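Trying the structure run again after the queue cleared.
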Amino acid sequence: MTAFVLVSGGYTGGWIWREVAALLRQRGHTPLPVTLTGMGDRRHLAGPDTDLETHIEDIVQVLEHEDVRDAVLVGHCYGLLPVLGAADRRADRVGSLVYLDTGMPQDGDAGVDVMPDPAVRDRLLGRATECGGGRFLPPPSLEDEEVWGDLTGVAPADRARMERLAAPQPLGTLTRPLRLTGAAAALPSTGVFCTANGPGIAVLEALLATGDPRYAVLAEPRVGYFDLETGHYPMLSRPGELTDVLIRAAAGEGRRLG
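Done. Tokens:
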């Protein structure tokens, strides 16, 4: 039995993992979907000081109160930043990490820093000033895929649920830098690419082929990879396939590039 701590991206909450959590439970595992402070059904708890450290502490407290060991921490999109922070602080309770359709933030990076398009970043920060009082980032329409990501495979009912339950993102969660000591740097990790939303494993292979030493970490034996042919929200579009991938990642499976 494995404990899976599930942390989703911006504007969402633990509710988005409902189907995956049920499937993990059916297969004998312990799913722990996390709703971060100010998100989902905890949106009313957001305050002026809610930031990335708040979200890191949310996950740390789940690890502590559920008394889990060798947990698999799954970070989707923005959710990876607090996942990495929590793993750094309580590496003794973490067995491995899953990077679910997200980037590779490093020590000192903030959420706005890792957005690939500076124009999108500037637009979001402007929106927070104009519509969120400088404290919140109101959720945009689902039609804005530059922010939400690709919605391939998400059924109309789930799209409606996303729109209805989307919560404003506390701005401090995106502007406060991630601070890492390196305590979790050697943990086994798995990258899961949703190929309708962006490049997959083949792009990593091309980067490694350049011989650039910066990419050597991608080929370490502790790192595995999976491609999922779907959009940015596989927990909604392909919950069964995602469940299989998470269980296989926990078992140390996945394609190696070394």
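The chain has ten helices and eight strands. Worth checking whether this holds up in the mutant runs.
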